[in-house]
Amino acid sequence: MKGALLVAGTTSDAGKSVVTAGICRWLARRGVRVAPFKAQNMSLNSFVTADGAEIGRAQAMQAAACGLEPVADMNPILLKPGSDRRSQVVVMGRPLADVDAMEYGALRDRLRRVSVEALARLRAEYDVVICEGAGSPAEINLRAGDIANMGLARAADLPVIVVGDIDRGGVFASLYGTVALLDAADQALIAGFVINKFRGAPELLAPGLDMIRRLTGREVYGVLPWFDGPGLDAEDSLALSRAVAEPAPPYGRQTLRVAVVRLPRISNFTDVDALAAEPGVVVRFVTAPAELDDADLIVLPGSRATVADLGWLRERGLAEAVTRLAGAGRPVLGICGGYQMLAREIRDEVESGAGTVAGLRLLPATVEFAVDKTLGRPAGSAYGAPVTAYEIHHGVVTVDDGAEPFPGGCRTGSVWGTSWHGVLENDDFRRAFLADVAERAGRDFVPAPGVSFAALRAERLDALGELVGRHLDTDALCRLLESGPPKGLPSLPPGGRISP
């Protein structure tokens, strides 16, 4: 088998990342040499490859589904929003510039070449490449400059399947409208549809499937059922409302309650996925001071805009609440940007240009923002356990002499801070840390022995692959991969009629 296809979606968070990962896993388990690809990703959840390149976290997860170490070619363009109007552009894993929409337009041709060349290298190295689109291909205001959806499909002659989220409603209108809004040349590449997140009676859905086939002249390749439980490295903050499931019963007598502050520019919120996988750990994302009162552990996560999000904490009264509770001995963990907020002061002439800003003064450290971004895969130890992680930051934290060390940072009493992402994925370290938190919070919580976050993630990927195998027409998908876009597909104008 040799080929590639593009998984597009009717909306953001329709399930493109998960469907891509599921197809990758299904193929990999059948011995196919398969790799993932996303030409351009807009996400604040990112990962660092072994050679120090920054890519989207979802593509790292998809690489794991393929049994591969992630590389920059899998996500050559990463956009990291720092405000509503400006984003950092990361090209082949390295920051290029901070731009607004007009400045981005000047880079468009260069970025298109980079993306097409990266896909070509993956296709030369692997038998199959499963590409993921971005947002929706029917964002017609952006079509002229598109490099991630139909622009990529046209450049590489890729067959396209469109994923629709039935759980949010209007899935048939979304599928039909997506095709109808495209021009004829783009429509010619749309092979068919996948319906995602279905949890109803199949017989009630069947008439709609028949009708969408008749109206569009395209196949429905299957209906994926609702996939319950913790998410797999979600890349979109839209997933936060359902990112954490109810935990398994506690191993001890009580649960451990974790409140993660949902910052406006929250980044790498996947850091708490490992906590949510622990039996008896209840994880909630919060935005109000009162929601911190019953938390046994408060987490200040990463941020793409540390100074701005610290200002938001103060405006909402969250800064005062965190300081008050920490002063009373309540455990607090800051990760990356959240760690920077816990310092005495932040000097930032790079990200925000705000100059010197007072931090929360909960840790004996100062922060200086550097022009160059730190990207790495560091290692250390704590609680007698090894810790491996990855780091992505402009803020450089200097810890006072004599401060108590912590992997990637420091601690004072019940306040911990680290610049490292992924520390909680280290099983022995995580259990020891949670036991320390529970003791300080006065909770009769005991970490469950033997929980392996890596094994749980592998099980989730296997389950995705099995869902694809059971519920999608994999023979038809394989024919798409081998033969490319179907020939003679009808053109669909707005209005519901197929042209002759």
Describe this structure as you would to a colleague.
The chain has 14 helices and 27 strands. It has 500 residues and is of the alpha/beta class. It folds into 2 domains: 3-231 and 457-483, Rossmann fold (3-Layer(aba) Sandwich); 249-447, Class I glutamine amidotransferase (GATase) domain (Rossmann fold, 3-Layer(aba) Sandwich). It has a 7-stranded mixed beta sheet. Strands 2-9-1-10-11-12 form a 6-stranded parallel beta sheet, sandwiched between helices. Strands 3-6-7-8 form a 4-stranded mixed beta sheet, with helices on one face. Strand 26 (409-412) and strand 27 (415-418) form a beta hairpin. Helix 1 (16-28) packs parallel to helix 2 (57-66), helix 1 packs across helix 13 (453-471) and helix 5 runs parallel beside helix 7 (202-216). The longest helix has 25 residues, at 101-125. The protein is globular, with a radius of gyration of 23 Å. The chain starts with a strand and ends in a 17-residue tail after the last helix. Keywords: Cobalamin biosynthesis, Glutamine amidotransferase.
- CATH level-1 class of the largest domain: Alpha Beta
Fraction in beta strands: 25-35%
Q: State the helical fraction.
A: 25-40%
Strand arrangement within the widest β-sheet reads: 15-13-16-18-27-26-25
Mean pLDDT: 93
Number of strands: 27
